[in-house]
Specification:
Rossmann fold; 12 strands; 2 domains; homodimer; alpha/beta; 7-stranded parallel β-sheet; 11 helices; globular
């Protein structure tokens, strides 16, 4: 007697050898990779969502997806709002960490469907980006590059990261990795989390851990303010004009979280007025950043197109996580990285 | 009875509080800081050499220096050639690490005068510069900055430093620190030294240590080639056209050593032809880099005006070293960082 198969649909581009690894997890799996319906990856680890242009393509997607029990990524945007109502669907493995708001917007938080995030996968490249930004600002890379364009050889003294104070808002897996690399260069690191109970600062590579509620009390100490918190109702607009004013004029903001965590007009005003020394932004309020945004041309701003988390090899790590979760799923064990619908991370 | 005093002349700009620390080492010291004859520091830790313009200023310097037993820095350039013949002079504390060639050029290697270098002081800022360069090249910072100037939001995938292969030529204190920070991000690090005997790779934060003689055998493995060797007759022109050709086209050269270690025309040719992915150069053959050098405008080159070693707070570290050496000197103990006139480092 043939065992009932479990349909998995891979809904964003994935390398053939990684699909084979998923297929190899268990013979019961019916892994569908609708290559012809998927966009072509523009770069490694491009999790481009399909966006079917004609009714036939949409119908094709629906017929492939409706029998699915498991999705790898959320699938075509026009169908996301329907997911919560599909009776077969049990579990969606996301390809990024910050999907809480997205899942809530489409009602998944009110459904029986489990979403697992890719939390952890992006911690290292994001920490490297934060470290690069800290070094670029501390060592005057923007001045260096401007001098180079002007063929100007003008010696100067840079800063060392040692004893600089780094504040990390929202010490989850990304924040912990930022703390680790900053500590490796002897920075002093203060972290915040929603709740500090039972989380020893040392385990998080922190010199100090404070509740995010008490953020205002530490802002004046910071040389670098790094945002790694999830976007939740509590963190929306967290870094507003008042909090930006609490930072030293020599401080630099590094946003690895979501654009909505920062009051962007207030940030622009502070940068333009010299009340803040710089910003490295991997995320902005509206993405892509509109061509007319003043952020593009501010001399003390580094813009990254939400790519700091995207690393060659990322798909391999997500596939590792997915295969491990598949095993757990098949064995009826709790999955890793389950999105908490109350906390939205 | 008054004890004979020991004259020390500080011959490059130093902060008053640091001079006070030197004075406080011992009452026998006669510490002279000829403020009016010294150039003004243009930036923190500017070790600008005095360059007396008129005969009176030169005479004033000579009268201050001739009775000196100890110099902090080498003093006015027009007088350096005389130092070896002054009978009182016993010891010069340099403010940089790479002074071997300079000392030899002025005959100090043939004199009884001891030179101590500032080796170790610059290890951290140089390692940070190397790390910044590795992250900037690995994570596509040049592309990011070009996209930003064009107001272009184009997502892409960067590299992680993990498992990248870093080669360090000349693992002294700087190279060891470069290795330490690269290993902190899980790079694989291969180092070279003149002699590997008795130097376990692990103590140097290396995965492998090879004699510099065998450099050619490792060049093809490297993603980053970092030069931290002294400039000696053996290392002059070490990175020539043949060795550059052994590197992968995706490799990046980071020169923290001296410009003379690299065949600069060959480097430029390799960069222009795309046979090398990039270069971060803190040192060049002729400094300041001539305005007409093609290096300024190559899109895959980062030029630093020999300032990567210069950090705010550097003078404090050099003063720590000098005060410790002063104690040793007064007690007749061996000094730290004595320049080896045979090896020239």
């Amino acid at each position: 007697m043939r065992q009932p198969s479990i349909r998995i649909v891979i809904t964003s581009p994935l390398e053939p050898e990684l699909i084979e690894r998923i297929v190899a997890v268990d013979p019961r799996l019916d892994v569908v990779y609708p290559r012809d319906l998927l966009p072509v990856a523009r770069y490694p680890a491009d999790h481009a969502a399909p966006n079917p242009r004609d009714p036939e393509a949409l119908a094709a997607w629906r017929s492939i997806l409706e029998p699915a029990e498991i999705l790898f990524d959320f699938g075509p945007r026009p169908l996301v709002a329907e997911l919560a109502s599909w009776p077969q669907l049990r579990w969606i493995q996301a390809t990024s960490a910050g999907v809480g708001q997205f899942a809530a917007r489409f009602g998944l938080d009110k459904s029986r469907i489990v979403v697992t995030t890719a939390s952890g996968v992006h911690a290292r490249p994001l920490a490297e980006f934060a470290l690069m930004a800290m070094l670029m600002f501390g060592k005057g890379a923007f001045r260096l590059l401007a001098d180079q364009r002007a063929h100007r050889w003008e010696r100067y003294a840079g800063e060392e990261l040692a004893a600089r104070v780094v504040g990390i808002v929202g010490v989850g897996r990304i924040g912990r990795e930022v703390a680790r690399v900053a500590r490796g260069l002897d920075a002093r690191v203060i972290g915040t989390t929603r709740s500090v109970a039972g989380r020893p600062a040392g385990d998080l590579f922190l010199d100090r851990l404070v509740p995010t509620d008490e953020l205002d009390a530490i802002l004046g100490e910071l040389d670098f303010l790094v945002l790694t918190c999830p976007h939740t109702p509590e963190t929306e607009g967290l870094i507003n004009a008042e909090r930006l004013a609490l930072l030293k004029p020599s401080a630099v903001l590094i946003n690895l979280a979501r654009g909505a965590v920062v009051d962007e007009p207030a940030l622009i005003a502070a940068l333009q007025a010299g009340r803040l020394a710089g910003a490295a932004l991997d995320v902005v309020a509206q993405e892509p950043l509109p061509a007319e945004s003043p952020l593009w041309d501010l001399p003390n701003v580094l813009i990254s197109p939400h790519s700091a988390s995207t690393a060659i090899g990322e798909n391999g790590k997500i596939t590792d996580l997915f295969c491990d979760n598949l095993q757990r799923y098949l064995e009826g064990c709790p999955l890793r990285n389950v999105l908490d619908y109350a906390l939205l991370y």
